[in-house]
Design goal:
Helix content is 33%, strand content 19%. The chain has 349 residues and is an alpha/beta fold. Strands 3-2-1-4-5-6 form a 6-stranded parallel sheet. The two termini are 42 Å apart.
Length: 349
Amino acid sequence: MAYFRTLSKIQLLLDLFHREDEWLILINADPDALASAMALKRIMSRRVGDVQIAKVNEVTRPDNLAMLRYTRIQVADLTPGLLRRSRKLALVDSQPHHHPMFKDREYQVIIDHHPLTDASVCAPYTVVKPEYGATSTLLTEHLYNLNLRPGKLLATALQFGIKTDTASFERHFCDVDLRAYQYLSRFADHNLLSRIARSEFHRRWLDLFARACSDMYPLGSGQYVFLGEVDNPDVLVLIADFFMRVYEIRWVAVAGLHGETAVVVFRGDGVSRDLGRYASRLFGEIGSAGGHKAMARAEFPVTAAGGKDPELFIWQRLTMPGERPHSAANGANLLPHTADIPPEDDIEE
């Protein structure tokens, strides 16, 4: 039995490649995007004149930096000059409406696993499979169908991409993700994979973890913590993920400020509430907000708080009518500004 389905339209992809072409693969760099771009570049190699990978974001998370270092992925910053020199564009692990720098461009290839929320997403070769847990799985399928054996570093990168986007198969995934991970294990360096996966924290972040543990406030069936100014919003993600390892915590909102932007990261058990809808409902009108049932994110300019203290502003959004804030006995553990918010029943959605 074959590991993967037969990609009947894969010849359409190969027909786009010509020796004289210069290609640029655009990504919003995270492990899944980096590995997917690396795989697409492998497919393009020897078929096109030149291919580069360009990112629209700064890579700062320790595990992402470790992945770049150990798998030797070459990634440039996306610049107008780089765009002008490239005749053909590909986009992986994203869709054009996901980032301002992806918009209003003509793509020849789009491969992604996120939900298709814009019907205008199209290219001569478009594969969008939201039932898949990772774009790395899609690219592994492509390599398999083309009889391209992934080298050690590429296989390791693809495994880490799948591992990260499925949270080690604790988040949404399908059987193909499992088969891809198993298939890649033949070729990957498992010691290298462990080394990358363990590179989660900067030492300077440990004080923030300590503060987060002592400054949590109950919020319905979940918890809320505001950490003030952070040098990197990625630490909010790590703290939120850390809290979801605590038995009593069903969902959490971890907020902070990065420059002139307020960031709220949501994580949950996928049962208590749909965090993607929750984030979108509360913050979508003032910034970008959304995500999946068990994980979501909201970002908005600090000026949207209208001069209010950002911590209070976020708390008031989270406890808007119908959002069921939870009061501890005698008002204990509530934000000082919110002691007058009446308790409500903690009824799950």
